[in-house]
Task: structure prediction
Amino acid sequence: MTLIDVAIIGGGASGTTTAFHLANKGKNICILEKNNYSSMRICGGGMSAAVQNWFPFELNPVIEEVITNVEFSWNLADKVVAELSGSSPFWIVQRENLDSFILDQAINSGCKLFTNFDVVKIKKHSNVWRITALDGRQIESKAIVIADGSQSKWPETFGLGPKKPSYASTFAGRVKRKGNLKSKTARFEFGLVDNGFAWAFPLKNEVNIGMGTFLNNNNSIPSKKILTSFLPDLGFDPSEIIGQEAKLRVWNGHNNLNGEGILLVGDSASICDPFLAEGLRPALMSGYEAAKNLNAWLDGNIKNLDGYSKTMKTNWGNSMAWGKRISQVFYRFPKVGYKLGVKRSTAPKRIAEILSGKISYEDIAKRVINRLLFQR
Ligand SMILES: Cc1cc2nc3c(=O)[nH]c(=O)nc-3n(C[C@H](O)[C@H](O)[C@H](O)COP(=O)(O)OP(=O)(O)OC[C@H]3O[C@@H](n4cnc5c(N)ncnc54)[C@H](O)[C@@H]3O)c2cc1C
Result:
């Protein structure tokens, strides 16, 4: 068996990004993916334009809509609209298109792809990782990247990530026409979902619709009931949507995301935003940072991969710590949160700026603290 540099388990947004940046630097790598690439992926597809920073190629071909307005409502009424400035757009993609576009760039750079490769066993023998698929195929590598999403069992197996992962209950679906959602407008509805929100994001000819609940999340989300109210408001019949429920692992404290020759990226690393379910930006960021550290480690320029966990803490985790606090207060008292948070004159713009990646939760927290100190 040939020993490759890195085996990436999972070919979603985080795995393909890691793969591209490793292959682009000439490393011998492969993606081991359980499924094929044709099916629809469960995701709202909303993504900050800031993700372009992590790619040397344009993501334009997969962007279906550039959002310039964000509309908020409480129980379908009491609407507030925020405008996004030209410099900080929010993009909407079809997730399956985004993932396969990045995958193509990785393959063009030399990455191998093994599909229908359901990883069931990972063992380390001296310094070599041996990964086994359900059908018995095996791969050996110097390092592994865990990128198999929210249901991953490997963080626990290798003592990485949070001891007690936290999950949001979610639903995502698609309607195959535009309804009455205004073009270039993303919609957020807070009153219909207990401890969470529902959204509608326009694509070129379709709409991504979903919802998430962020507290008491052992329960499943009553998606049918919520869709019965939400879809007619968007000009659809509830029977028009095709979608699925899923558990989404969200950020739950600062944690070690690497061991010796092993890194967690994307949802398996529990880095998804616990307030707004933004998981694509951290998935792409973690893929980029993981590859940067692995390239240096494989070249012998660094002794370990600890820099990866540190960078993810500084560049993402510190903001998520505030995101989690905001989420716990907001979703516990959502009506008050909507009145004092969203309906405050500057608030919708701030939320829109968070979505576009222009500011972080940490920036918001610092502003509030400064205001309180100043008032005193
Ligand atoms: C309903 C919903 C809506 C969302 N909406 C948004 C949004 O609008 N914007 C946003 O930023 N984020 C959103 N997110 C979060 C975002 O989808 C995730 O954070 C993102 O998918 C993480 O990418 P990933 O590559 O880590 O994991 P995934 O996309 O889950 O990819 C994991 C891959 O690993 C493969 N895999 C799994 N098990 C194995 C195995 N045993 N062997 C081999 N391969 C395996 C899977 O088939 C899959 O291809 C949403 C999430 C949900 C659930």
